[in-house]
């Protein structure tokens, strides 16, 4: 973008960015791009308003702006995002962590604290957001994470190293590569019905991995498999927590009930939408043990 040039004041650059981003409804993202390009905090940005952009900063901002205007998600452009206070690397091949998933994390952490859980598995881990947050905040002895996507696990391993978390990673289809049992299993599986994918926002539809979005014809394909298989990977009394899409909570609760789970309940998000479904492990007999 020609307006962004070396020597222009940071405040002037901010105005130019907002003008450029306004047509795609993203004027507020100018701040994020400046923080990234300048490598500073919000306080530093306020103090640097009159300072001139260096050539490197102007080039970085121009490149980031072009990527964003082309429809690439802001988080991919920045190369990182925060989840539950944990900075994470993000990029193509892994779903971007979202605020809705923090509802799942909060419920999981509450159970870890109340019941002294020692082990947890994050199934369909993606960028590793849940696994890292559980390792950092959960007080657990063992945290494992699994995903079928090598690309997703690339980011998850980077994020585990970034947070200095000892997480065991497994590559494969749902529970297939995962040994042992866990006190807690959490999962944010693909849950968008296949027919709805074409209607997603462009930045999601064209850039985030379809593998992490497509939940089958009715959005419930992965919940059916998880409900059927999770009991064999939970300790007695262990908990299964699942993030669900809008309107899916009732069907997922029925799946858990049909698989023999007990104490089934639902947690709503801040908008009052049922967002997390949970259940307790079936009795040993139902697990086949």
The CATH topology of the largest domain turns out to be Rossmann fold
The fourth-level CATH homologous superfamily of the largest domain is: Vaccinia Virus protein VP39
Which shape, going by the Cα principal axes? elongated
Which spans have pLDDT < 50 for at least 5 consecutive residues? 285-289
Separation, N- and C-terminal Cα atoms = 64 Å
Percent strand equals: 15-25%
Describe this structure in words.
The protein is an alpha/beta fold. It folds into 2 domains: 10-70; 82-287, 3-Layer(aba) Sandwich (Rossmann fold). The chain contains 12 helices and 9 strands. It has helices at residues 10-21, 30-38, 42-47, 55-69, 74-78, 100-115, 129-137, 150-162, 202-207, 221-230, 249-258, 284-287, and strands spanning 80-83, 86-89, 119-123, 142-147, 167-171, 182-187, 234-243, 262-268, 274-280. The protein has a 7-stranded mixed sheet with strand order 5-4-3-6-7-9-8, sandwiched between helices. It has a two-stranded antiparallel ribbon with strand order 1-2. Helix 10 runs parallel beside helix 11 (249-258). It is elongated. It starts with 9 loop residues before the first helix and ends with a helix. Mean pLDDT is 92; it is low at 285-289.
């Amino acid at each position: 973008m020609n307006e962004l040039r070396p020597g222009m004041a940071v405040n002037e650059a901010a105005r130019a960015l907002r003008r450029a981003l306004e047509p795609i409804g993203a004027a507020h993202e100018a701040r994020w791009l400046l923080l990234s390009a300048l490598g500073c905090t919000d306080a530093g940005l306020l103090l640097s308003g009159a300072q001139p952009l260096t050539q490197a900063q102007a080039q970085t901002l121009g490149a980031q702006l072009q990527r964003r205007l082309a429809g690439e998600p802001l988080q991919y452009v920045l190369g990182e995002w925060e989840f539950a206070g944990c900075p994470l690397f993000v990029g193509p091949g892994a779903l971007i962590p979202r605020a809705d998933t923090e509802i799942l994390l909060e419920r999981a952490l509450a159970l870890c604290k109340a019941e002294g859980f020692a082990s947890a598995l994050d199934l369909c881990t993606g960028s590793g957001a849940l696994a890292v947050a559980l390792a950092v905040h959960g007080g657990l002895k063992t945290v494992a994470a699994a995903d079928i996507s090598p690309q997703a696990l690339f980011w998850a391993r980077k994020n585990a190293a970034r947070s200095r978390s000892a997480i065991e990673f497994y590559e494969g289809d749902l529970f297939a590569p995962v040994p042992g049992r866990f006190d807690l299993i959490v999962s944010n599986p693909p849950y968008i019905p296949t027919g709805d994918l074409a209607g997603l926002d462009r930045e999601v539809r064209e850039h985030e991995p379809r593998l992490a979005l497509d939940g089958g014809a009715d959005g419930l394909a992965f919940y059916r498999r998880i409900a059927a298989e999770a009991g064999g990977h939970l300790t007695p009394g262990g908990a299964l927590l699942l993030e669900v899409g809008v309107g899916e909570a009732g069907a997922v609760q029925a799946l858990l009930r049909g698989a023999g789970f007990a104490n089934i309940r639902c947690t709503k998000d801040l908008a009052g939408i049922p967002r997390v479904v949970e259940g307790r492990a079936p009795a040993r007999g139902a697990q086949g043990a």
